[in-house]
Amino acid sequence: MISVLEIIQLAYKIPSLLLMILSIYIIITEIKNRNAHFNTQFYLIIVCKLSNEIIYNITVFIFVLLPKWGFYKKFLKNHDWTATIYFVLSTQQITFMFFITLIISINRYIAVKYPLLYKFYFLKSKMVIILLSVITLSTIIGLGNIFFEARFDKMDSFDTLIPSLTSESAFYYRIFYQIFLFGIISIATCTFNTMAILTLRKLNKNGIKYKKELNYTIYSILTFITLFLVEILYVCNFIVSIFDFVSLMYPIYFLFNMVLDLTSIGKFYFLIYSS
């Protein structure tokens, strides 16, 4: 059964995802038409970011929402490999989200700090290599989950199935990438955002640049808040796993996806506003 919160979530998520698809189409079309405004590697990064977020939402829809609404529950319960596939895909996609956020921060920092060297640092060939490297690394981290036992556990209090890793060693692997790796990426992202803001303040001479500084400040604050909340929820999830608070698993998982919505959809609309 669909809850009220899920109806609200679908009400903003479906139009947003459709708008993301439209944005990807427009950006790719403009790049092909050699539109000068879109002829920067920044928009290539945005296309990759939006594509990944669309795929992630599809993954959650297939493996979490549809089973919660009563679709193929028995199949998932009887086939543990489906949980493994979910963890491989979701881990890869979330890892890519963190990396692409860092790349955007570096891109914006270089653009304001070293504008004359921007094209040198972000040549198309270099950007392709960077993106392929990030995709490869994210995929490797995602594939790490195939070595751990996974299954869909039934949450009786919420009448739903939640994918979970049952291997004890998986706990340490999750600490590695969710706390240490994502934590380092988050710190680096916030650092580059802060340096970009400080650079913009030094260069601030007119109203247009002030608006740019204000927009970047808001974006940086939003990035910091969302990354901080994601890490907090990861810690909460570890606490739930350690003390076996099964009843809290789904609420934390739901909150986690809400925060990711803020990270992806919130930033997407802010990007449209500030463009």
TrEMBL record:
Membrane-topology descriptor: Multi-pass membrane protein
GO MF annotation list: transmembrane signaling receptor activity
Keyword annotations: Membrane, Transmembrane, Transmembrane helix
Any single GO CC term annotated in Swiss-Prot or TrEMBL for this entry: membrane
Superkingdom of this protein's organism: Eukaryota
Record's subcellular location: Membrane
Domain G-protein coupled receptors family 1 profile, residue spans: 22-275
Gene Ontology biological-process annotations: sensory perception of chemical stimulus
Alphabetical list of CDD domains matching this protein: 7tm_classA_rhodopsin-like
Keyword presence, Membrane: yes
Transmembrane segments: 12-31, 43-65, 85-106, 127-148, 175-198, 218-240, 252-272
One Pfam family recorded for the sequence: Srg
UniProt key word Chloroplast: no
Gene3D superfamilies xref list: Rhodopsin 7-helix transmembrane proteins
Family label: Belongs to the nematode receptor-like protein srg family.
Name this polypeptide is given: Serpentine receptor class gamma
